[in-house]
User: What shape does this take?
Amino acid sequence: MKTKEYFKELSLTILGVFIALVIDNYREDVRDDRVVKSYLGIIKEDLSIDIQNLTEQLKGDSSYVKKLGILSDVLTTNRDLPQMKFGLSMWTSQNLTPYRKLSEWDSLDYYSIQLYENSQYKTRKIGFSTIINSGLGHKIDLYLLKKITIYYTTDSDELDYVTEVDDNCHWLGIEYANKYQGSFKNVIMKDDFNATQLRNEVSGRYNTTLTEMHVKIAMLDRARELLKDIEQY
Assistant: This one.
């Protein structure tokens, strides 16, 4: 009889401990779900900032690349330019531009100093870093977690690489032109001015900017898609 009562009390104790553990685990799950939801909220904020910044940068890039294209065309087709010293690189096709005398060209502020603009962009990763460091990534739907991870690793690495290309380039012809102020003619007609080098650098920068824009547009589309997925989650 005592044995039955002992096992009965033991069973009740074990049941009580089990129920307490279930309740505690449930509370932890609820707490973790709330924490993860708040982290996803930070990612939503990060994505909104990415979308806003990338949109603004693309507006500036679009205006900038038009100036580069015009300058590249002018350096190739303007008949007032001195004879080129070396063969031209053919990075891009040239368009004929309306003829304008060199003496009527705008100052170097417009044509050459602007060429040093840098449109580098890095995604904001506060929410993603928080989720990784928390160890709660498993609480997020696997498909959504995969999309988030790809956006902040593979896609972001590609964006960082493409927009950092200019940091590894030395635009010597542009650097030379940037030392002067005044009419373009007074500088470009100097004996030590290499119009070919400047034209090639402008052409290279033009194509680099186009590549940057394509990558930013793709990143912008992914940011919008990911933001929509998180909002619907």
